[in-house]
Amino acid sequence: MYQIRIVLFVLLLLNSLSDNLFAQTKLFSKKEIRKLTDQASQYLKDANFEKSLESSKLALHHSISTNNSYYTTISYNTIAANYAELAEFDKAIFFYNKGLFYANRTNNDTLKNHINNNLGNIYCFEKKQYEKGINYYKNSLTYSQKNADTSQIFLTKLNIAWAYFDIGDFQKGYPSLEFVNKYDTKYGDQTTAGAINMLNGMYYGYKGNHEKATTYFLNAIKFGKEANQKSDLSFAHLEYSRYLLIKGDYKKAYENLSNYNKITEELYNKEKLEKANVAGINVELDEYKREIDKIENEKDIQLQSLEKSKMIVLLFTVIFIVLLLLIYTLFRNNNFKKKTNAELSKTNKELIIAKEKAEEVSVLKSQFVSTISHELRTPLYGVVGITNMLLDEHKELADSPHLSSLKFSARYLLSLVNDILQINKIEDNRIILENLTFNISDEINMIKNSLSFLAKNNNNFILVNIDPAVPEYLIGDKLRLSQIIMNLVSNALKFTNNGEVIINVNLEKIENKSHFIEFQIKDNGIGIASADQDKIFDKFVQVGRKETDYQGTGLGLSIVKQLLGLFNSSIALQSAIGKGTEFKFVIAFEFNPDKTYEIINNIQVNMNATQMINVLVVEDNHINQLVTKKTIEKNNYKCSVVDNGYAALEILDKESFDLILMDINMPLINGFETTRKIRLKGIDIPIVALTAFDKSEITEESISAGINDIIIKPFDSVKLFKIINILVSKN
Asked: Where is the Histidine kinase domain (predicted)?
């Protein structure tokens, strides 16, 4: 019965599941593996164990290589079945467990069902570990019930009944036998008839119903002979002989036991007996070798016993010395560790002090840059403003090279201050990108117009090409984008004569709401040598400068590179001497039509442009007073000027103003404190900070004080009047 159970499992498994899994792996590999597993199964059925193992191992190699858990399980199962047939049950258990591991990696409950059943067979009927075996049978039943496979439930119940009857627990085994008897007509066949009749014979023998018991035992022997089921037939004779022995019919008991022994001998062929013989001889040889080794060891022990005392003393001495050395080493290591910890502690303190000094230096550097920029911007505001006033009031000086040089020098110095402040802010991580909606075409053309003077100086043309696919309005930091393009275009204009600078804007790709825009700035100027291209983005680098050339501070491209880093972008350069230069970078901007329409619909139209606006200027610098007043009055506004915050508070008690331009850095009382006192008076007219400080440095305190907006000196007069009109209109 055991041999038939193993073969039956392999054949049922291949027939019932191979068609369903055929499409799950690659066609060629699966056919090859299936052919090998079929061969292995047939060899096992023919008791050709050597070829069955060879085919199974080859199939196992292919199935593992193709990561096919199903055929890996089949291969391990066939290998285990071979070892079970060769009575090497420990090896069989090992390979069944390997098969169960891979079966659990599949969704095939039939595989898990059969392997649990096979493990139950070995533990119950070969290892005689019935409790463990019955647990495997119960696992098998769980999978059978899950699949509603009554035929497999029938076979497992048969095995469970047999296992319980084997240990004499007929009460636990009978419900399974009752199930088997109920479905015998539907699921039983010649291969199971002998075993079923034998189990009934055992049960009725236990119950004392000798007539039924005898009938069932004789039927079991009859069906075993007819179906040529020698294994079941042998067990039928064995159990019948046990029953007859209990009845006292010793003659028939002896006859049936003899039949059992005869059939059992037939089940093991000559080759199996020879293998068992060889194994027995090997065991005897091992035993003889152990006896010889034992005699030799006794002689050695006798010879060594004379020296044992000396060796013990010597070993004790050596161990004692080693312990002393170990203690000494631990003592030295402990002292060294203390010394090292003290040095590390000292070094850590020095590092903390150095870190604090570095942070202090960084703060001082930022404060120094901020202070210097403020102190430079204040007089530059006066220089630029007075220069513009001279040009406006004395038209005959419009072509004066001296005034042009003065204005150029002031703007150059202002540009240098802005660049240094920008680098300092980037290095201190004080720049946060804004998300504002802007018109990219307007921004590019504004840059073009602002650089037209520089283009005319070198007889250059600026061309702008914007891809129609680029949305008109995008969301991002337009100020930083303008700084990047402004620096690249002005750089291109400086190194190009009688040529052209082209600004290309193209849509590279779209991911969700992000539009990746590619910007190209090309010129046909002098170009950059390949040896210099790696260093032009470093600070204060000026490549190939001549004494008569003006190339700026060397900060522009460094600022460009660092600003692009804020956009998570990088810049690419292509250039050759005499052929021009091309810079290229890509920035992702958000495109949100809903936000765009909202901003367009909320654009304010200034309805008060023609009204008379009365402005109060609070400024302690007399030159700046003059410049600011002239600028405001030039726009037909009324303007009053006071020297400090207290004077402002006094005049506000007497006169009414539409807007206040407030300097921040003033003696006696600064602009923030003056604003707070104005607000405490209940005066809510707009106040604009007109200062040389960087906007990011004073924004938070300005809002806290009640300031409405900030303009940095020197300022663009157009921007100033735009802010004035908006704030006055709102108020």
From this structure: 371-591
